[in-house]
Write a structure and sequence with these properties.
The protein has 8 helices and 7 strands, in the order H-H-H-E-E-E-E-H-E-H-E-H-E-H-H. The protein is α+β, with helices and mostly antiparallel strands. Strands 5-2-3-6-7 form a 5-stranded mixed sheet, sandwiched between helices. A two-stranded antiparallel sheet has the order 1-4. It has 2 domains: about 45 residues, GTP Cyclohydrolase I, Chain A, domain 1 (Orthogonal Bundle); about 130 residues, GTP Cyclohydrolase I, domain 2 (2-Layer Sandwich). Keywords: GTP-binding, Hydrolase, Metal-binding, Nucleotide-binding, One-carbon metabolism, Zinc. Belongs to the GTP cyclohydrolase I family. One of its GO terms (molecular function) is GTP binding. Pathway: Cofactor biosynthesis; 7,8-dihydroneopterin triphosphate biosynthesis; 7,8-dihydroneopterin triphosphate from GTP: step 1/1.
Length: about 200
């Protein structure tokens, strides 16, 4: 079992066989020098890109939740992520900003970035990714409120289909106090826009 992908060598070899078949079906010579090792490299890359399926959020958090007396908003902004669109298996990537209002507990800041990867490293859609991050932070912290904003570029729009290069997609998910308060949402968006 690979520590970086969570898949056995046998499974990765089977995925590589499928990649070899696909490359051949596309009209390429799989025995050509530049392609001989491509199926295995592609299989390992896909296993790494989808490792979120084989991770456990409780292991990721690893008891990094701490007692906290304050109730001011905590924001971690511009967490970069890379994911694969479940419709075309093409990359989409961007940044996630997370805000929450503690209710007696905070989480280690790096764990928020790891939770973003936990959901990003799988076949995904941006709307679900944003909602899943918001939901897990709310559940694991029991926060008064959580807000997640995600902005991403989608290669399924840029390199196929409409082939538009400039559009970016933003999704926002809220829970608790952020759903109820326009003021809190404004405070969050002002903070991430100013970078302070």
């Amino acid at each position: 079992m690979s520590s970086t992908t969570g898949l056995s060598e046998e499974t990765i070899e089977e995925i590589a066989r499928h990649y070899a078949a696909i490359i051949s079906l596309l009209g390429e010579d799989i025995t050509r020098e530049g392609l001989v090792r491509t199926p295995m490299r592609a299989a390992k890359a896909m296993a790494f890109a989808t490792r979120g399926y084989r991770q456990d959020p409780d292991v990721i958090i690893n008891d990094a939740i701490f007692t906290h007396e304050g109730s001011n908003m905590v924001i971690v902004r511009d967490i970069e992520f890379y994911s694969l669109c479940e419709h075309h298996i093409l990359p989409f990537f961007g940044k996630v900003s997370i805000g929450y209002i503690p209710d007696g507990r905070t989480i280690g800041l790096s764990k928020l970035a790891r939770l973003v990867d936990f959901y990003a490293r799988r076949l995904q859609v941006q709307e679900r990714l944003t909602a899943q991050i918001c939901d897990i932070v709310m559940k694991k912290l029991g926060a008064k409120g959580v807000i997640v904003a995600c902005t991403a570029d989608h290669l399924c729009m840029k390199m196929r289909g409409v082939e538009k290069q400039l559009p970016a997609t933003t999704t926002v998910e809220t829970a608790g106090a952020f759903t109820e308060s326009t003021t809190l949402r404004e405070e969050f968006f002002n903070a991430i826009a100013s970078g302070k």
